[in-house]
Amino acid sequence: MTSPQDTHRWFSRCASIGAFMVPGLALWLPSGYSYGAVLLLLATLASAPLWWRRPAPRAAWWLTAAFSCMAALWMLDVGATWGWGSMDRPVKYLLALPCIFFLMTFEPRAAWLWMGVAVGAVGSGLVALYQTFVMELPRANGFTNAIQYGNLSVLLAVMSGLLLVVQWKRWCLWQRLLLASAIGLGAAGSVLSQSRGGWLALVLLLPVCAWLLVRTTGQRRVYWGLCALALAAAALSQVPAVEQRVDEARQEVQVYKDHGDGRSSVGQRLAHWRLAWQMGWDRPFTGWGRAGYTDEKARRVAAGLAHPVVLEFGHAHNEILDLFAKRGLPGVLLLMAFYGIPLAMFWPTARRIRDGAGKMDKESLSLCLVGVMVPLSYIGFGLTQVFLAHNSGNMFYLFMCPLVLAALHERRTRMGCPRPL
Q: What is the C-alpha to C-alpha distance for residues 192 and 198, in angstroms, rounded to an integer?
């Protein structure tokens, strides 16, 4: 007969393997982000009698509240007009909820998560190189669209960079080489996808990373590292494909400004943003709803009040404006809570990153910084793309947040420190 200790150890191992698989397979395989999620869900169901009545920390309940509110928001889109497919997004959110409590009971080890982040970034770059130079695709897209692919690739690269910098002394040579390769190949995946939104998000991510590192470690040489990254970014901007995409963006902005032409990539975004802003203020407290948004767009195009290009997409190419038009200010506030709650949970306070003697714990700091990067990057990505309209965007967020939280709690417990929340 299996002892309770063996059972607990087995489910903990499942949690750790899931922590590796979610980021590690995200961009390697078709729906790669789902394999780890399915493993975690199956383990959650199998272990339900063990975690069901077990008290959970406040952080788990806050995360549950954030996910539940967004699930309720997506449920408003469910209807006969969209068929069973309209249930896809809210069901994923609801299925992620029990996984939070499973992970807080059978907490994964951070080492598995770190390996997954590094392997995921390496994989994204290798797939991008293969698709670009062997398959000769114009843009690397992995097994999703190029924008989602490039954005997640650069996020994994940034996470790998944080791990390399914060825990440099801990890593042996092969681990340093792996993380350095992850940075380079993750960045390559983004560059070869030609996804400009991910590059824009770096303007938000990198200064915050540098400021938090200096604030928590007191090592001002981090700013020199940021300067080096800025120089590297400037060098990348001279890569022909990148330089061409940047020049195209400038030209498309000017053409839209001068002639109102929304047929270009940037032009159609500007047309969507303008229309969504107008529609949002027409119904600021209720929004138009998903079906109403589509119908009203068609009416305004027919009346000559909007560019016909807006009919080609079901969203506004901006996360906040899209929800503003469809669900009004309440929808925007729920989105802010969806990002803000994890951001607050992972913010690197002294209670979360120092041990009982007041000494800095680099593992806890790494977990907090990676946790901060998830919602912060989604805010950046959402400026030019409705990231949560895609399966990859939802699944990565829904499982990375509880995985990082559970790993942080496992680390604090193992050190004998009070849990952060």
A: 12
150-164, 261-275, 335-349: lowest mean pLDDT where?
A: 261-275
Of 250, 252, 276, 251, which Cα lies nearest the Cα of 264? Answer: 252
Backbone φ, ψ for residue 283 (5° rounding): -135, 70
What three-state secondary structure class fits 101? helix
Between CA 381 and CA 150 the distance in angstroms is 10
The DSSP call for residue 303 is: T
- Which helix H or strand E contains 109, and what residues bound it? none
> 382: burial class by Cβ within 10 Å (0-12, 13-18, 19+)?
buried
User: Please, are residues 108 and 410 in contact by the beta-carbon 8 Å criterion?
Assistant: yes
Q: Are 57 and 419 in contact (CB under 8 A)?
A: yes
Q: How far apart are CA 328 and CA 322, in angstroms?
A: 9
CA distance 159 to 400: 12
DSSP class per residue in 135-150: S--SS--TTS-HHHHH
Q: Is residue 328 pLDDT above 60, yes or no?
A: yes
Give the rounded percent of residues in the chain with a pLDDT score beyond 70: 86
Residues 390 and 315: their CA atoms lie apart, in Å, by: 11
The CA-atom distances, in angstroms, between 61 and each of 32, 64, 96, 98 are 28, 5, 13, 11
In this structure, the number of other CB atoms found within 10 A of the CB of residue 130 comes to 13
CB 318 within 8 A of CB 268: no
Distance from C-alpha of 104 to C-alpha of 60, rounded to nearest angstrom: 7
Number of other CB atoms surrounding residue 367 within 10 Å: 31
Query: Which residues lie below 8 Å from residue 304, measured CB to CB, with a gap of 6+?
Result: none
Q: Torsion over CA of 345, 215, 184 and 389, rounded to 10 degrees?
A: 30
For 191-226, what is each residue's pLDDT tens digit? 899 888 888 888 888 888 888 888 888 766 566 666
Report how far residue 165's alpha carbon sits from residue 333's, in angstroms, rounded to the nearest whole number. 35
Q: What is the 3-state secondary structure (H, E, C) of 68-82?
A: HHHHHHHHCCCCCCC
- Cα–Cα dist 339/165, whole Å: 25
Cα(384)–Cα(67) distance, integer angstroms: 23
If you average pLDDT over residues 13-36, what whole number do you get? Answer: 95
